[in-house]
Fold Ectoine/hydroxyectoine ABC transporter substrate-binding protein EhuB.
Amino acid sequence: MVLPERLRLAVAAAIGAAVLGYAAVRAGGGHDDGGRPAATPLDTLAQARAKGEIRVGYANEAPFAYMDSRSNQVTGESVEIARVVLRRLGIREVHAVLTEFGSLIPGLNAGRFDIIAAGMYVTPDRCKQVAFSDPTYGVGAAFLVPSRNPRNLHSYEDLARDRDARLGIVVGAIEGDYAAAVGVPADRMVIFPDAVSALAGVQVGRADAYAATALTVNHLLGKLPPDGGLERARPFTDPVIDGKPVRGYGAYAFRKEDRTLVDAFNAELKRFIGTPEHRRLVAPFGFTDEELPRGMTAARLCAGP
């Protein structure tokens, strides 16, 4: 049957309106054709469970999240813990999205990925932009020194008191500020272009200690043979700057509106951190019991000092 032109156009318009209305309901916007509020779209956790996959952003920084050249896989403390937690939430596949560190939060909020898995420190300023899980580690400062620590250096203050001791610093690193704050003069700071160069500098005697985070020192030592001639200074006292010991706490970051995902992830994370399984998982990346978060929470860190 051939419809009159006017009727055919009317039918086509009605079908088009119906299709648009259905799309709006599926997208969660507007109202359905009965005047009722439109259906709510699946939240990020429900979407990830339905697909069996989720995207995480990382910044290629060992030992937190980096591309392993041998396996050609993204790995690291933050990525491997995320895989365990997400599997427990029913999400089997984790797709890693490489991003510059400074672009991680903008990329998360723009929807390029759904979780930041980069060992990001929790700070009050960042808490204004994203929601954090509770931390997976806490890290203070450390010295890399020759075996048996011949100058007996166990703090920045020890090095400041020893007028012949020289401290290795990577160019632009905050450890130079720490040293200056406790009285280490600039002429006793030996500047290196990177961590590997600083390690070599201690090996050949250009510096008596290399200052870095404990995790950096652990990671470097993990690359040396047992007789590599270097060790981490133990015990070690973190510097006190502006009345506060220096210690950073790293966690996962999420969009603020993804509260369901944050809460579910955090619940599983609390069951996992500190267990024997967790300790075995992160040990290859240089993490020890000394880096456990010790009950620290995102709420406390976001509140600030």
In short: The chain is about 35% helix and 20% strand. Confidence is low (pLDDT under 50) at residues 1-34. Residues 143 and 211 are 5 Å apart (CA to CA).
